[in-house]
Amino acid sequence: MSHYNLDPARITERRHTRSAVGAAVLSLPPLQRELIVLTHYQGQTIGESARRLGISPIDAVIYLFWACLALQRQFREWA
User: Fold this and answer.
1) How many Å apart are CA 52 and CA 68, to the nearest integer?
2) How far is residue 52's CA from residue 65's CA, in Å, rounded to a whole number?
3) How many Å apart are CA 62 and CA 79, to the nearest integer?
4) At what angle do helices 46-53 and 57-78 cross, to 10 degrees?
5) Integer Cα distance of 19 and 21 in angstroms
6) What is the C-alpha separation between 47 and 39, in angstroms, rounded?
7) Per-residue pLDDT for 1 more than 60?
8) pTM
9) pLDDT tens for each residue of 8-47
10) Residue 13 Cα to chain centre, angstroms
11) Rounded CA gap, 49 and 13, in Å?
């Protein structure tokens, strides 16, 4: 048995959610957006992402904090 819910309404809901998340990430400032993509979607560590972007790991944590706060605010309004 499949672990996926193939109900058309659920599929549409997942697509809508994925689209909303993508739009929210795209609305972030470039550095915040890149850190979200590198750490969340590509699975890099904060240290790896910081080195790739030429910033300190502490700065990466700060930018990620602000990115997550911005995303949280957007989805609080969306929900």
Assistant:
1) 20
2) 18
3) 26
4) 110
5) 5
6) 10
7) no
8) 0.77
9) 888 888 888 888 888 999 999 999 999 999 999 999 999 9
10) 18
11) 31
**Two structure tokens written together for 24:** 């929210």
Q: Are 33 and 67 in contact (CB under 8 A)?
A: yes
CA distances from 41 to 22, 36, 62, 76 (A): 11, 7, 18, 22
Q: Of 69, 40, 46, 44, nearest to 58 (Cα)?
A: 46
H helices of 27-56, in order, are: 30-36, 46-53
**72's tokens:** 């949280």
CB proximity list for 66: less than 8 A, separation 6 or greater = 32
Neighbours of 63 (CB within 10 A): 23
User: Amino acid letter at 47?
Assistant: G
